[in-house]
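--- STAGE predict ---
source: upstream dedup step, 1 unique chain passed
mode: sequence only
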Amino acid sequence: RPSPPAIVSDALNPEDHLLEKETRDLIRTFQEHLDGDEEAQLVLLGLADGLRGQDLRSSVDLDQPALDYAVKRIRRRLRKAYPNGWAP
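--- STAGE serialize ---
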């Protein structure tokens, strides 16, 4: 007896959907702490999208020293906002 055909779906399962929503909410919260620093916000979004290295530099149109400085600003502001670390 043949097996039923496999159903392939691009839809997220409920757990993945919740994780994706929580990630978007977290990024939005972190972006609020970067208000006024558009470069840092773009870098944060690129990192959240999984971009690294040359792909990240290209997407935010920064050279390596400028990217490093944007990451440093992100870390500094988030450490100030969450001195004991971030917890959900």
